Amino acid sequence: xxxxxLSLLLxxxxxxxxxxxxxxxxxxxxxxxxxxxxxxxxxxxxxxxxVNFKNESALVISDEKVTLRMMQDAVAQTGYSAIxxxxx
Amino acid sequence: xxxxxxxxxxxxxxAICLTPSFLNASSTPxxxxxxxxxxxxxxxxxxxxxxxxxxxxxxxxSDINGFQRLIELGDSTEAETHFESxxxxxxxxxxxxxxxxxxxxxxxxxxMTLALRxxxxxxxxxxxxxxxxxxxxxxxxxxxxxxxxxxxAKVAKIIVGxxxxxxxxxxxxxxxxxxxxxxxxxxxxxxxxxxxxxxSQLEQDGRMGGKCLDMSALCVALMRASNIPAREVxxxxxxxxxxxxxxxxxxxITKAQHCKVEFFIPNMGWIPCDPADITKLVLKEGIExxxxxxxxxANKFFGFWxxxxxxxxxxxxxxxxxxxxxxxxxxxxxxxxEVDGEYLxxxxxxxxxxxxxxxxxx
Lengths: 88, 362
Fold this sequence. Notes:
The structure holds two protein chains of two kinds.
Chain A: H1 2-15, E1 18-25, H2 32-41, E2 46-52, E3 57-62, H3 68-77, E4 81-87
Antiparallel strand pairs in A: 1-3, 1-4, 2-3
Chain B: H1 3-17, E1 35-45, E2 54-59, E3 68-77, E4 81-85, E5 94-99, E6 107-117, E7 119-120, H2 130-137, H3 150-160, H4 166-180, E8 181-183, H5 195-205, E9 208-210, H6 212-225, E10 230-237, E11 257-265, E12 269-273, H7 275-285, H8 292-300, E13 304-305, E14 309-313, E15 316-318, E16 329-331, E17 336-339, E18 342-343, H9 349-352, E19 354-360
Parallel strand pairs in B: 8-9
Antiparallel strand pairs in B: 1-6, 1-19, 2-5, 2-17, 3-6, 4-5, 7-13, 10-11, 10-14, 11-12, 15-16, 17-18
């Protein structure tokens, strides 16, 4: 019973997960991706963040409750900026 | 000296002197210069990324100007693809390994034997081959992290003034960096290597804090802006220094990366210098920059590298081979790895994970 409930919870979280594609400004080397990733992961509800220096982009998977503003604020605190490329 | 040691040392001496590129050097190695032989062991283990594909690029030591020679390189790995290459813009020697996500063991062991001599410039004019002259001019150009215009050009002009002699211009720039910068231990790794960031700090605080890549990059940018070809050389301290504990390393050299500088004078060749180590000396020994000891070593380090430091490459703002996912690297003094295309932090060797150990053989 417990396992079923856990599976349902997991499925529900995936169903309600949001995928964000962000353009990241201000990265001057590959090591900057670490700081941007850390900032994005610090936002409560962000499940995964992959940052790419070459494309100046970040792919973020988050809960429904996470807003663009929350991620932008977190990224801005590290000295970079985030702009949405597209939202699913 | 035992007979076996003598044979080994003389054989290595021959190997290091026969390096063809030493004609490009600013001085000719002689048997008077001490020869050191080190055995290095690099161990990488990325097995904890059990469900991910991993790719690793390791910077290998160069054969440089008859003063440094990689005698032997051995590898042990079960990586599906692994090879040595220097197929990149700066011919930076690289060992590459790639593991598929299903690989159980994602380890790489590299062993190497290296012979090194002190590099002491005699500042005497000598014949430099035309190819070297042409090649050196490439190191006048700016790159993503090495601007030669704006604040850099302005400051270079102030430092150099009316001086026309390139060697004297280089010395003015070197002295200026030693005088105006300090070692900031809070900086991660070797620093960012941004000349503009250093100059902004100077404007704001009246002095510049950083580490070796920061000071070396500034030195290179100011020299290039003054029409002197120059480049940073990434490397690792691999043993104790005869001059100061500040310049040395123990057996665990995992975090002993250090960047130096080379500049080029048309009738002398490439000349080494190291402004950053003087700031380290001052901090570690608690002495003043104008103390006789600091001034003596600052004078020595304009034209000198000790044989306890191994040069890796002078690559900056370049593309790895094979290509990575993240794009151009700003420098290549640390191992570089990607896990499913994501950058792995080389400044945290424990979580990466890797170790580098060194033992002096002779």
